[in-house]
Amino acid sequence: MIKLILHFIFFYLLLNFNTTFSKEIVVSPKSFIKSISQAIQISRSGDTINIKSGYYTEGNIIINKPLIIIGTRNPVIDGLGTGEIFTITSSDVEISGLTINNSGVSYLYENAGIKLKEVTNCRILNNTFINNFFAIYLAKSSNSIISGNYIEGMRKKETNSGNGIHLWDCRDIIISNNIILNHRDGIYFEFVRNGRIFDNRSYNNLRYGLHFMFSDSCKYWENIFESNSAGVAVMYTKNVLMKKNVFRNNWGTSSYGLLLKDISNSEIKENQFIGNSVGILLEGCSRIIINKNDLTENGWAIKLMANSMENSFSLNNFINNSFNLSTNSMQNFNKFEGNYWSNYNGYDLDKNGVGDVPFRPVTMFSVIVEKQHLALILLNSHFVKLLDIAEGVVPSITPNALIDPKPSMKAINWSK
Amino acid sequence: MHLMNKILLYEIHNTIRNKWIIIYSFFFFFIGYALFAFSGDGSKAFISLMNIVLFIIPIVALVFGSIFLYNSREFIEMMLSQPIDRKSLFFGLYLGTALPLIFSWIIGITIPYFLFTVNYNNTEELILVIIIGSLLTIIFTAIAFLIALKQDDKSKGLAYSIFVWLILAILYDGLVLLIIYTFEDYPLDKFIIGLSIINPIDLGRIFFLIQFNISALMGYTGAIFQKFFGANLGIVISSFCMILWVILPVYLSLKLFGKKDF
Q1: 20 to 30 A Cα–Cα from A290, which one of A10, A172, B14, B108?
Q2: Which structural domain, as residue segments, surrounds residue B38?
Q3: Exposed/middle/buried for A226, CB within 10 Å: 0-12, 13-18, 19+?
Q4: In total, how many domains does chain B have?
């Protein structure tokens, strides 16, 4: 019994100990502490700063110790268009529930709504960012989470807009459930390892919805990239997994659903490419598995450049694209098998669901267009249709080896 | 004018009782039915419809127009023995052929559109198709009249009609492609725009493509075309070319009709 009481006392003390050492500081226009910087100054590591509803303009706020910063009832922190707003230089910081507006446009400094500099274990949750140059900027950081933020840029010119979420030289970052619009690039990665990006929506950005370079071993799933002026571009990277993303309506003269340049050993699975000028462009890519995707109503479903090899395209649905595939090579070092092509005219005598006649996805006209771009004015012309039919019977200028030997008779239902 | 209206009314009455006009109407009805009822996406259906319009309308107008004029030979001779103005008779005949053709296909295509399209958000496309198709009918009926007046031999006249169609609908594009290939080292943009304006079928096709933002797909080429056809000057020039295509054959055949010894 005494032992039990002693235990209770011990635990009580332990709890008290904790509460006395991590206190909550309230910041409010009505309370004693009116400024966030002041609150940070008097706080100690591990404290919670609760920012009440109000309008705060304090210039640059530097967080240099582990703190939890919570906004209650939507406090607005305004940078007034100059400089940076939050600069985090300490690990273990959490910021949530704030509205952060107007970090300054600069050609010298990458002013951000929240910048994380060489930190680890931080969380940026459920904030709203409006009209910032860069919204969230991570440099040389690791093990952090960016989730549930609404990020809206100012949609100026490409040259004086920053990126929504910008990562440079980071490790193990999770980016999820964010909405990003009207920035230059929605999500930008450079030298990132092991990022996990899911359930984000990036749309109406001036350049790319998602843009990454030299960022190996990252995973992207269930994101939506929509109506970005140049779509999504990913370059110089290996070991990427892209699954169940939607690339929609990236339509324009230099717009791509997904532009892959020098990507290798990666997987693109179960994505939807709908209504893009070019669904997927592959340039210098190798050993990519493109499996179970829907490519619907794109200008070109796939543009495959001659320097891409050992890629495999299987079980994809190609539906109502103006061109299914175009390539500038006469050879074929890639594999196409078991895809569904909506304009396949073959038959299936043994009723096994696989067409008995191989399908040639490259039409004569797409070869002509690849060589003579001006010939595109003959799109939909009857003469061109005749040419395509003639070429289909006796292939002469289309790559002979590029065939799908086992085209599917029915659209593949991969979602099951 | 009064006389022309009278002849026109008679001609229209005469033409709409023609079984081919009814078949023509049904043909477009079934095409429209198939496209609108079974195609999920409206825009896609209109692109297919436009292809059919560009293919079928010129040949029907050419063949029907020339056959019609050959068959009206006796009627024309009878009318000309009366003291009437040749101009009125000509326009009565011409419009009496072209208008029923236009009505026939427009009725054929609009009924399935309103029956089977769940939400009518493609009306703009429909109007564009109707305008282009009607212009093509007017142009190719005029060309048919010109051929039929120039050539008294019925079979030769028909052959010429089909030949004209073959050139404008198919071979012309081959020629354009040949030029693009042969002179690939030269800046051809403007020249090709010029070439595509000259042919009314190509003009119709490109106009339709540009309107539905397929130009984005065409990259640089598309941008050039968009710039030309999207700008006021481009619209003025291409409309002018279309009108010229109507006026020129009508004028020539009117002149021929005025002088011809039937």
Answers
A1: A172
A2: 2-259
A3: buried
A4: 1
